[in-house]
Amino acid sequence: MTGCDLHRPMVALVAVAALVLSLVQGASAAWSTFITKAAFDQTYFPGHIAFYTYDSLKAAAGAPFTQFGNSGTLDDQKRELAAFFAQVKHESGGLKQKYEQGCNIQCQQSYCASSPTYPCSKTQPPYYFGRGPIQLSWNYNYGACGDYIGKPLLREPSQISNSAVTAFQTALWFWMTQGPHLAKSFSGTTKAINGDIECKGGAHYSEKGHEQMLSRVQYYKSFCSVLGVDPGTDLEC
């Protein structure tokens, strides 16, 4: 076997790696054909704070979240983007908030639950209140999300408020791994996010929660209209 023969497998591996990378990069950006930067800034989140940018969302939507907005038919993809943006708009006030509003020190300290796997940090105050586009909360979510995206969020929760890419990654982690992505309807995404308070039958259901749920539905319908897709059925929970 010649030196050239020995080199061929490596060339092939490099070529395959380049192809895989191009496919992953292409998949992560597929939804950007109908969610442009102009639409993000002017239609979906007008007046959003400078912290949140279209480019930071695109960066966050790379591996391991390449199935976000890329699953099923084109209409399925559009409905998922509309649902995600509707929930983000409700949770973050239209991407105008980095963290939970009106949460005082006592409130911030309350987001610490007993967890053998993800105990609250002892090196700093255990402030695991809502942060990011979908308001990631509680120490066990910070820990699990951090493990998934490879960042020490349990030890350094403020990373979410300091990096827009990280902030969007936390939203995508919840969306893709905690139920919304696999939901069969928009109501399913709301149940996964705040069903205990906003959906009938929830342990802490209230009229105020019901109003919040209806607000999410209106955002979703509006975004579906912009994308030219039928919102489907089973929107309220």
Structure in words:
This is Glycoside hydrolase family 19 catalytic domain-containing protein. GO terms for molecular function: chitinase activity. Residues 50-178, 186-237 form the Glycoside hydrolase family 19 catalytic domain. The protein has 237 residues and is mainly alpha-helical. The chain has a single domain (26-227), classed as Lysozyme (Orthogonal Bundle). Helices cover 54% and strands 0% of the residues. The chain has ten helices and no strands. It has helices spanning 3-29, 37-44, 54-60, 74-92, 105-109, 139-149, 159-162, 164-177, 186-198, 207-227. Helix 4 (74-92) packs across helix 10 (207-227). The longest helix is centred in the N-terminal third of the chain and has 27 residues, at 3-29. The protein is globular.
Which keywords apply here?
237 residues; mainly alpha; Lysozyme; 10 helices
Can I get a quick summary?
With 237 residues, this protein is mainly alpha-helical. It is built from ten helices and no strands.
